[in-house]
Specification:
The chain has about 270 residues and is α+β, with helices and mostly antiparallel strands. The chain is about 25% helix and about 35% strand. It folds into two domains: about 90 residues, Winged helix-like DNA-binding domain superfamily/Winged helix DNA-binding domain (Arc Repressor Mutant, subunit A); about 170 residues, Chorismate lyase-like (Chorismate lyase). The chain contains nine helices and twelve strands. A hairpin with a 2-residue loop joins β11 and β12. The N terminus is likely disordered.
Amino acid sequence: MKKSETPSGRGSRALGLTRSPSLPVYHQLYVVLKQQIIDEIYSPETPLPSEFALGDVYKVSRVTVRRTLKLLETEGLIERRRGVGTFAIFSKKSSETLISGGLENLITIGFETTAKTLALEEVSAPALINQALKVKKGEHCICVERLRMHKGLPFSLTKIWLPQDYGKLISKESLGDRPVVAVLEDAAIYPTSADQSISAILADDICSEILNIDIGAPLIRLRRTVFNRNGTPLLHQLSLYTPERYEYQMMLTRGNHAGRPQWKHID
């Protein structure tokens, strides 16, 4: 087989011998090829490797390859041209992916987004929220759950918990499509800092239904506790983003603090 026919350029690998034996081989191949298509590894002028080449590279049968290609075709990721080959279909990813340091920045710089408030209620704060907001065990707080859309597609599901005292400020009418922090700022409550972490999780049945993705699909998880200038917690946020529609990007600068070079985030 020619080297150019190797999809990833890394040689062959047997998918059936991966660490995901419970995942059908055809679906493993589907996940691999889908990501390569999304990452634009294939040129729009060059056909994908042949069924024989794909089977040889990943050590799977042609029946498996055909089942995988049928799945990709149904999803609109490839098209088959009789007598020419199979080609990746590019969906102008750059114009659909939202790139920013945070959701509030997206709205600030003019992205057209809409938000639907799924729930707004007073709840007994979970232990993690008690700790983040520094409230007593069992104390109630306000919980807001929102789905945000861009160009008609869901890209984030967010839960925000606030101290009970802020309940009178938060309503579906006061929120509209704006971030919760904007409502606080209207009431002269100003956030000045935040403690934030980013990780990845798999979508459960609830996220799957709301975000219109498969159960087990990867999600970007952002946790953020926002503070005022006195260090008092104002809110705790948990946001889930679909990685195909949202990309978290930040600018860094290289510094040499106390003789120890390190990267620092530029606001």
